[in-house]
Each structure stands twice: as structure tokens, then as C-alpha cells.
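G., the chain you wanted modeled:
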Amino acid sequence: MHATTIDIARHNADLFDRSEIAEWYGGQSLFASEAVILERFRDAYAGKRLLDLGVGSGRTTGALLPDVADYVGIDKAEAMLAVARRRFPGATFLDMDVRAISEFGPGRFDFVLGALAILSAFDHAERLAVIASVHEVLTPGGVFAFSFHNRAWSRAGGMPLHARSWHPREIMNSVHPQSWINYLRLRPFAHEEADYAIHVDPAHRWSGLFYFIDLATQERQLEAAGFEILARFGEDGRPLAAGDDTSRDGLLNLVCKKAGAPH
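Predicted structure as C-alpha cells:
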């Protein structure tokens, strides 16, 4: 059975549109890699216009809002947006699908952030379309920073027992019966392609179907869309060079710019 027989994006969106999950995310801080990226590339967004994709409960908002001139966060999970609006009443949060960002128009933003592997929630064709739309809404020389599920991770495609970390919540989710029920239900939709894979991956006991890609292939995908690579980071925030071992990284991070103008 092929993954095109299920609406991956809709399934994954439903995983996060739950009040208890929204409240939990509202209490979370930046990941190590995110903190490194936002510090190193502060000049790319400070005093400028920023679009936060899949903003959820505003986990990244607090770190960005004081520095940017124009902040817009978008999400489709109503429960998440309710928490974000309560926490940051002065910020702009829109009920908007990531796949619809071309509606903002060309050159609307200077910086686009795609945290927590938001692009991994879509199938291959939709992912490529979102990357093209990010390129469109960026001003020339604008920066796109995002994380993604790493196909070269040693646990990619593993069973629910493969917790992403030793965090108590991750361990609890990996052994919870609901994780196994959902894993077995979704397993037939997982598949491998030459350039990417769709794997079942635990997400709050309600496993999702996520897009996994290796670093080199992701870079080629970006370059084909008109981006230049600026930096690579592992899950722990360490800088990466092309060809480095990423087998320990469940998530990888790339920072790139819209080609054609200096950063």
C-alpha cells in the first residue's frame, strides 16, 4: 500500500490539535539547535519581517518577538493558536495552512522559520511546493531556517520503542499501548523512495507519517528551488560540514538564503 492513499498532512495536523498537547508545547523552550541559529543569524531577522511556519503554541515566539519589526505566526491547529494568542496578545497569529503562504505575495518577508520539522508533515509534492512558496515570499537575499527529519538517523523508521530521547515524556510515549496501535495502523502507508522516505514516527502517542530526507539530498532540493546553503547544524546545535556523520541526529537544521543577493 502506498502513502498517497492517506492524507498525510491532514493526519499529522490532527495530532497536534488537542488542548492538552497545546498547553504542553506552550511551556516548552527553544531546542539547542534553534537557540544557536537564532543567535548566529540575528542580523537576518532583527528589525525585519519574519514568518513563523507552524507556530503552534508560540514556543518560538517569545525569542523572536522582541527583535523583529513585523512578526507573523501561522498554524491550522485551533487549540495551539488559542494558547499562542493568550501568551502573546500583541503578536499576529493567523489560522492559515503552510501550503497557502504564497497568498502573502512576493517578497513579503525577510526571514522564514520552519521549526520543529514542520515541512516533514507533508508528502513529497507538497513539500516541494512549500519550499517554492517560501522562496516566493522571501525578499531577495532573505533567509530560510528550518529543521527536518533525518533519513540517515540510526533510528529512522524504527518501532515506537525507539524513543527520540531519554526525556520521560518520550519514553512514556514509546511504550504506551496507543503508540503501538497507531504504529501498526499506519505502518502499511510507510514507504521508501530514492530521495526520501515516509516513516511512521511517534508523536504524543498518536503516531504520524513524516517525511525523512538526508542532508545532502535536502541541500540539492533547496538549491533546485533557488536557495544557497549558509549553514548546517545537528540536533544538538553543533555546526556540520557536508559529509559529516549525522546518524545520531533525529532532526537536522539548515539555514539558506534566497539566491541572487548578498546576505
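The chain has ten helices and ten strands.

Shout if anything looks off.
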